[in-house]
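Still learning. Any example?
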Amino acid sequence: MANQTARTRPRRIVIAGASGMIGRALAERLTAGGDEVVRLVRKPARGSGEARWDPAAGILDPAVLSGADAVVGLSGASTGRLPWTRAYKEVVITSRLDATRTLVDAMRAADRAPGVFVSASAVGFYGDRGDEDLAESSAPGSGFLPALCRAWEREAGEASELTRVATVRTGLVVGPGTAMRALHMLARAGLAGPLGSGRQWWPWISLRDEVVAIDHVIGAGDDGLNGPVNLAGPTPATQADVMRTLARLVGRPFGMPVPAFALRLALGDAADAMLLGSQRVIPEKLLADGFRFHDETPESALAAYLDEVG
Protein backbone atom coordinates (compact mmCIF):
# COMPACT_ATOMS: atom_id res chain seq x y z
CA MET A 1 0.00 0.00 0.00
CA ALA A 2 1.13 3.54 -0.67
CA ASN A 3 3.09 5.45 1.94
CA GLN A 4 3.28 2.54 4.39
CA THR A 5 6.49 2.60 6.41
CA ALA A 6 8.55 -0.59 6.50
CA ARG A 7 8.17 -2.64 9.70
CA THR A 8 11.61 -3.36 11.12
CA ARG A 9 10.64 -3.97 14.76
CA PRO A 10 7.57 -4.43 16.96
CA ARG A 11 5.76 -1.19 17.66
CA ARG A 12 4.52 0.09 21.02
CA ILE A 13 0.97 1.36 20.65
CA VAL A 14 -1.09 2.91 23.43
CA ILE A 15 -4.87 2.54 23.15
CA ALA A 16 -7.44 4.54 25.09
CA GLY A 17 -10.81 2.83 24.82
CA ALA A 18 -9.42 -0.67 24.36
CA SER A 19 -12.41 -2.23 26.15
CA GLY A 20 -14.86 -1.22 23.41
CA MET A 21 -15.66 -3.27 20.32
CA ILE A 22 -13.24 -1.43 18.03
CA GLY A 23 -10.53 -1.13 20.67
CA ARG A 24 -10.62 -4.84 21.49
CA ALA A 25 -10.47 -5.85 17.85
CA LEU A 26 -7.64 -3.40 17.16
CA ALA A 27 -5.62 -4.62 20.14
CA GLU A 28 -6.07 -8.23 19.03
CA ARG A 29 -4.87 -7.42 15.52
CA LEU A 30 -1.83 -5.51 16.74
CA THR A 31 -0.72 -8.10 19.29
CA ALA A 32 -1.22 -10.89 16.75
CA GLY A 33 1.18 -8.99 14.49
CA GLY A 34 3.82 -8.83 17.22
CA ASP A 35 3.23 -5.29 18.44
CA GLU A 36 3.23 -4.28 22.10
CA VAL A 37 -0.14 -2.84 23.12
CA VAL A 38 -0.60 -0.76 26.26
CA ARG A 39 -4.24 -0.37 27.28
CA LEU A 40 -5.24 2.67 29.31
CA VAL A 41 -7.56 1.56 32.12
CA ARG A 42 -9.39 3.30 34.94
CA LYS A 43 -8.82 0.48 37.43
CA PRO A 44 -5.41 -0.45 38.90
CA ALA A 45 -3.12 -1.63 36.11
CA ARG A 46 -2.35 -5.34 35.85
CA GLY A 47 1.10 -5.76 34.37
CA SER A 48 3.02 -3.89 31.69
CA GLY A 49 0.17 -4.20 29.18
CA GLU A 50 -1.96 -1.73 31.13
CA ALA A 51 -1.52 1.78 32.48
CA ARG A 52 -3.93 3.60 34.74
CA TRP A 53 -5.44 6.94 33.84
CA ASP A 54 -8.35 9.13 34.92
CA PRO A 55 -9.50 11.23 31.98
CA ALA A 56 -12.23 12.98 33.96
CA ALA A 57 -9.52 14.31 36.28
CA GLY A 58 -6.94 14.80 33.53
CA ILE A 59 -4.56 12.25 35.07
CA LEU A 60 -2.13 10.24 32.90
CA ASP A 61 1.58 9.68 33.45
CA PRO A 62 3.34 11.25 30.41
CA ALA A 63 5.94 8.46 30.54
CA VAL A 64 3.28 6.03 29.31
CA LEU A 65 3.06 7.90 25.99
CA SER A 66 6.70 8.95 25.70
CA GLY A 67 8.24 7.53 22.53
CA ALA A 68 5.23 5.38 21.67
CA ASP A 69 4.93 4.57 17.99
CA ALA A 70 1.26 5.50 18.14
CA VAL A 71 -1.45 6.66 20.52
CA VAL A 72 -4.99 5.71 19.54
CA GLY A 73 -7.87 7.52 21.24
CA LEU A 74 -11.19 5.66 21.09
CA SER A 75 -12.72 6.70 24.42
CA GLY A 76 -16.20 8.12 24.73
CA ALA A 77 -19.67 7.33 26.06
CA SER A 78 -21.87 5.52 23.55
CA THR A 79 -24.04 7.61 21.25
CA GLY A 80 -26.17 4.49 20.76
CA ARG A 81 -27.81 4.87 24.16
CA LEU A 82 -31.19 6.34 23.31
CA PRO A 83 -32.99 8.64 23.76
CA TRP A 84 -30.50 11.45 24.34
CA THR A 85 -31.44 13.43 27.42
CA ARG A 86 -29.82 16.79 28.01
CA ALA A 87 -27.76 15.24 30.82
CA TYR A 88 -26.62 12.32 28.66
CA LYS A 89 -25.61 14.63 25.83
CA GLU A 90 -23.29 16.33 28.29
CA VAL A 91 -21.81 12.94 29.22
CA VAL A 92 -21.23 12.16 25.52
CA ILE A 93 -19.44 15.49 25.04
CA THR A 94 -17.31 15.56 28.19
CA SER A 95 -16.26 11.91 27.96
CA ARG A 96 -14.72 12.57 24.53
CA LEU A 97 -13.21 15.97 25.16
CA ASP A 98 -11.79 15.10 28.59
CA ALA A 99 -10.17 11.92 27.27
CA THR A 100 -8.69 13.62 24.22
CA ARG A 101 -7.44 16.59 26.22
CA THR A 102 -5.81 14.28 28.77
CA LEU A 103 -3.98 12.41 26.00
CA VAL A 104 -2.77 15.61 24.34
CA ASP A 105 -1.61 17.13 27.64
CA ALA A 106 0.35 13.95 28.44
CA MET A 107 1.96 14.01 24.96
CA ARG A 108 2.96 17.61 25.52
CA ALA A 109 4.59 16.74 28.85
CA ALA A 110 6.30 13.57 27.58
CA ASP A 111 10.05 13.46 26.96
CA ARG A 112 9.42 12.23 23.39
CA ALA A 113 6.25 12.70 21.40
CA PRO A 114 4.54 9.62 19.97
CA GLY A 115 4.93 8.86 16.28
CA VAL A 116 1.26 9.52 15.50
CA PHE A 117 -1.97 10.33 17.30
CA VAL A 118 -5.02 8.63 15.80
CA SER A 119 -8.17 10.04 17.36
CA ALA A 120 -11.68 8.77 16.81
CA SER A 121 -14.33 10.98 15.28
CA ALA A 122 -17.52 10.12 13.40
CA VAL A 123 -19.32 10.63 10.12
CA GLY A 124 -21.77 12.58 12.26
CA PHE A 125 -19.43 15.48 11.45
CA TYR A 126 -21.29 15.94 8.16
CA GLY A 127 -24.87 16.06 9.44
CA ASP A 128 -27.85 15.33 7.17
CA ARG A 129 -26.67 15.97 3.60
CA GLY A 130 -29.06 14.16 1.26
CA ASP A 131 -27.36 12.73 -1.83
CA GLU A 132 -24.19 14.87 -1.62
CA ASP A 133 -20.90 12.97 -1.90
CA LEU A 134 -19.02 13.63 1.34
CA ALA A 135 -15.22 13.48 1.22
CA GLU A 136 -12.90 14.59 4.00
CA SER A 137 -12.80 18.13 2.59
CA SER A 138 -16.59 18.53 2.83
CA ALA A 139 -17.90 21.18 5.21
CA PRO A 140 -19.40 20.22 8.58
CA GLY A 141 -23.14 19.99 9.06
CA SER A 142 -25.27 21.52 11.78
CA GLY A 143 -26.74 20.03 14.94
CA PHE A 144 -25.53 18.12 17.97
CA LEU A 145 -23.31 15.50 16.33
CA PRO A 146 -21.54 17.88 13.90
CA ALA A 147 -20.83 20.28 16.78
CA LEU A 148 -19.56 17.40 18.91
CA CYS A 149 -17.28 16.10 16.15
CA ARG A 150 -15.89 19.55 15.40
CA ALA A 151 -15.00 20.07 19.07
CA TRP A 152 -13.56 16.55 19.33
CA GLU A 153 -11.37 16.98 16.26
CA ARG A 154 -10.31 20.44 17.39
CA GLU A 155 -9.15 18.98 20.72
CA ALA A 156 -7.17 16.26 18.95
CA GLY A 157 -5.66 18.84 16.60
CA GLU A 158 -3.92 20.48 19.56
CA ALA A 159 -1.35 17.67 19.24
CA SER A 160 -0.46 18.61 15.65
CA GLU A 161 2.43 20.76 16.87
CA LEU A 162 3.88 17.61 18.46
CA THR A 163 3.18 14.79 16.00
CA ARG A 164 1.10 13.66 13.04
CA VAL A 165 -2.60 13.69 13.90
CA ALA A 166 -5.33 11.76 12.08
CA THR A 167 -9.00 11.94 13.07
CA VAL A 168 -10.87 8.88 11.80
CA ARG A 169 -14.51 9.59 10.95
CA THR A 170 -16.26 6.26 11.38
CA GLY A 171 -19.70 5.20 10.18
CA LEU A 172 -21.85 2.25 11.28
CA VAL A 173 -19.39 -0.49 12.21
CA VAL A 174 -20.77 -3.86 11.15
CA GLY A 175 -19.59 -5.88 14.12
CA PRO A 176 -20.89 -7.35 17.40
CA GLY A 177 -21.68 -4.02 19.06
CA THR A 178 -24.82 -2.35 20.35
CA ALA A 179 -26.03 -0.91 17.03
CA MET A 180 -25.69 -4.11 15.00
CA ARG A 181 -27.19 -6.22 17.80
CA ALA A 182 -30.30 -4.04 17.69
CA LEU A 183 -30.54 -4.23 13.89
CA HIS A 184 -29.97 -7.99 13.96
CA MET A 185 -32.75 -8.46 16.53
CA LEU A 186 -35.16 -6.45 14.36
CA ALA A 187 -34.26 -8.51 11.30
CA ARG A 188 -34.73 -11.83 13.10
CA ALA A 189 -38.14 -10.62 14.30
CA GLY A 190 -39.16 -9.79 10.74
CA LEU A 191 -39.15 -6.07 11.53
CA ALA A 192 -36.25 -4.97 9.34
CA GLY A 193 -37.92 -2.34 7.20
CA PRO A 194 -37.32 1.20 6.00
CA LEU A 195 -36.87 3.86 8.66
CA GLY A 196 -38.71 6.85 7.30
CA SER A 197 -38.21 6.80 3.54
CA GLY A 198 -35.31 4.34 3.76
CA ARG A 199 -33.57 6.37 1.07
CA GLN A 200 -31.13 8.02 3.48
CA TRP A 201 -27.49 6.99 2.96
CA TRP A 202 -25.99 4.98 5.81
CA PRO A 203 -22.17 4.96 5.83
CA TRP A 204 -21.05 1.51 6.94
CA ILE A 205 -17.77 -0.38 7.40
CA SER A 206 -17.01 -3.94 8.51
CA LEU A 207 -15.23 -4.33 11.83
CA ARG A 208 -12.25 -6.04 10.20
CA ASP A 209 -11.84 -3.20 7.68
CA GLU A 210 -12.22 -0.66 10.49
CA VAL A 211 -9.27 -2.03 12.46
CA VAL A 212 -7.11 -2.67 9.39
CA ALA A 213 -7.80 0.90 8.26
CA ILE A 214 -6.74 2.28 11.65
CA ASP A 215 -3.56 0.19 11.44
CA HIS A 216 -3.05 1.55 7.91
CA VAL A 217 -3.32 5.11 9.21
CA ILE A 218 -0.84 4.33 12.00
CA GLY A 219 1.68 2.96 9.49
CA ALA A 220 1.32 5.75 6.96
CA GLY A 221 4.60 7.47 7.94
CA ASP A 222 5.38 11.07 8.86
CA ASP A 223 4.19 12.41 5.52
CA GLY A 224 1.22 10.06 5.32
CA LEU A 225 -2.43 10.29 6.22
CA ASN A 226 -3.25 13.18 8.51
CA GLY A 227 -6.24 15.29 9.40
CA PRO A 228 -9.68 13.78 8.86
CA VAL A 229 -9.87 10.30 7.31
CA ASN A 230 -13.25 8.78 6.41
CA LEU A 231 -13.64 5.18 7.58
CA ALA A 232 -16.58 3.97 5.52
CA GLY A 233 -17.03 1.19 3.00
CA PRO A 234 -16.35 1.92 -0.68
CA THR A 235 -19.89 1.07 -1.84
CA PRO A 236 -22.45 3.57 -0.53
CA ALA A 237 -25.75 2.06 0.60
CA THR A 238 -29.08 3.39 1.78
CA GLN A 239 -30.72 2.39 5.03
CA ALA A 240 -33.19 0.27 3.08
CA ASP A 241 -30.33 -1.41 1.19
CA VAL A 242 -28.62 -2.37 4.44
CA MET A 243 -31.73 -3.69 6.16
CA ARG A 244 -33.07 -5.49 3.08
CA THR A 245 -29.74 -7.29 2.76
CA LEU A 246 -29.68 -8.17 6.46
CA ALA A 247 -33.25 -9.49 6.32
CA ARG A 248 -32.43 -11.67 3.32
CA LEU A 249 -29.30 -13.07 4.97
CA VAL A 250 -31.22 -14.10 8.09
CA GLY A 251 -34.07 -15.52 6.00
CA ARG A 252 -36.73 -13.07 7.11
CA PRO A 253 -38.98 -10.70 5.16
CA PHE A 254 -38.15 -7.05 4.61
CA GLY A 255 -40.61 -5.39 6.99
CA MET A 256 -43.01 -2.48 6.94
CA PRO A 257 -41.64 1.07 7.12
CA VAL A 258 -41.47 2.90 10.42
CA PRO A 259 -42.74 6.46 9.95
CA ALA A 260 -40.23 9.21 10.62
CA PHE A 261 -42.63 11.00 12.96
CA ALA A 262 -42.86 7.89 15.17
CA LEU A 263 -39.08 7.69 15.45
CA ARG A 264 -38.85 11.39 16.30
CA LEU A 265 -41.60 11.01 18.89
CA ALA A 266 -39.78 8.10 20.54
CA LEU A 267 -36.17 9.26 20.21
CA GLY A 268 -36.23 13.04 19.85
CA ASP A 269 -33.39 14.64 17.91
CA ALA A 270 -31.41 11.39 18.05
CA ALA A 271 -33.80 9.97 15.44
CA ASP A 272 -32.62 12.42 12.79
CA ALA A 273 -28.98 12.31 13.86
CA MET A 274 -28.63 8.53 14.10
CA LEU A 275 -31.31 6.98 11.90
CA LEU A 276 -32.98 9.38 9.47
CA GLY A 277 -30.07 11.60 8.46
CA SER A 278 -28.39 10.93 5.10
CA GLN A 279 -24.61 10.83 4.69
CA ARG A 280 -23.14 9.53 1.44
CA VAL A 281 -19.59 9.27 2.76
CA ILE A 282 -16.70 8.49 0.40
CA PRO A 283 -13.40 7.11 1.83
CA GLU A 284 -11.43 9.35 -0.52
CA LYS A 285 -8.16 9.51 1.41
CA LEU A 286 -7.97 5.78 2.11
CA LEU A 287 -8.62 4.90 -1.53
CA ALA A 288 -6.07 7.46 -2.74
CA ASP A 289 -3.53 5.94 -0.33
CA GLY A 290 -3.98 2.49 -1.85
CA PHE A 291 -6.08 0.95 0.91
CA ARG A 292 -7.89 -2.23 -0.14
CA PHE A 293 -11.14 -3.10 1.57
CA HIS A 294 -11.80 -6.71 2.44
CA ASP A 295 -15.55 -6.08 2.51
CA GLU A 296 -16.46 -3.86 -0.43
CA THR A 297 -20.23 -4.27 -0.13
CA PRO A 298 -22.72 -4.26 2.75
CA GLU A 299 -23.59 -7.88 1.89
CA SER A 300 -19.99 -8.98 2.44
CA ALA A 301 -19.76 -7.07 5.72
CA LEU A 302 -23.10 -8.37 7.01
CA ALA A 303 -22.29 -11.96 6.04
CA ALA A 304 -18.99 -11.74 7.94
CA TYR A 305 -20.83 -10.33 10.97
CA LEU A 306 -23.40 -13.13 10.91
CA ASP A 307 -20.65 -15.74 10.61
CA GLU A 308 -19.00 -14.25 13.70
CA VAL A 309 -22.07 -14.03 15.93
CA GLY A 310 -23.63 -17.30 14.73
In short: DSSP finds eleven helices and twelve strands in the chain. The chain has a mean pLDDT of 96. Residues 281 and 291 are 16 Å apart (CA to CA).
